[in-house]
Design a protein that fits this description.
This protein is α+β, with helices and mostly antiparallel strands. The protein is built from seven helices and seven strands; from the N terminus they run ααββββααββαβαα.
Length: 206
């Protein structure tokens, strides 16, 4: 395990202008850490979910002009890809680290999953910790705190993923940059592990 924690240099990658310079820095500084996290958590998530989980580090291969604003490693029970499947992510924007359970717009079962979550609204509302956050778009850094959400808000999120083609459903934690760079590797790994413990029930529900 060669993950040593995130540093200012990792977050500063997202301030570099230009696709090629930013990708070069991302590949050199962040990607090895994401690969290490992928290799570390894939076996743990396999045990926790009961499905064999495979890590997928974002390659950003389709980009031709705009440099990536975030990057991640995803975990899914499919060796070839993750976007069509319920999956987990660990990644970072320039402002924070995120740890997600995610259903994104490519998922063919998105409507059925939204219906399952709506039927289990009370259970989800009770069991997801207050410090967790929700999002309906993985391409934006914004999220809504569970602490500030009512059952009605959560229901609206579950309904939206059924009704809106591009809507997504993500739940997890965000660790502000300032906090993340103060955490040593063990502290970070424990925070991610704790998050996954609470997110695995959502995966099973999906």
């Amino acid at each position: 395990m060669n993950f040593t924690g995130f540093t200012n240099d990792d977050f500063n990658v997202f301030t570099i202008d230009g696709l090629e310079p930013r990708m070069e820095a991302l590949i050199e500084t962040i990607r090895p850490k994401l690969e290490a996290l992928g290799n570390y958590f894939a076996p743990a998530l396999s045990t926790m979910t009961g499905d064999e989980m495979f890590p997928h580090v974002a390659k950003h291969a389709r980009r031709t002009i705009n440099p990536p604003k975030d990057t991640w490693v995803a975990f899914a029970n499919n060796k070839r890809g993750y976007k069509k499947h319920p999956h987990f992510q660990i990644g970072l924007w320039g402002t924070h680290v995120f740890v997600w359970f995610a259903i994104i717009y490519e998922a063919p079962d998105k409507v059925a999953i939204g219906e399952k979550f709506a039927r289990n609204l009370n259970k989800i509302y009770k069991e997801i910790p207050n410090y967790f956050v929700w999002s309906s778009d993985h391409m934006k850094p914004d999220s809504a705190s569970m602490k500030e959400m009512s059952k009605k808000d959560l229901q609206a999120l579950f309904q939206r993923v059924q009704d809106v083609k591009k809507a997504e459903l993500l739940c997890g934690i965000r660790i502000p940059k300032e906090q993340a760079i103060q955490m040593d590797a063990d502290d970070f790994l424990q925070a991610v592990q704790d998050a996954f413990v609470h997110l695995v029930p959502l995966y099973r529900l999906a």
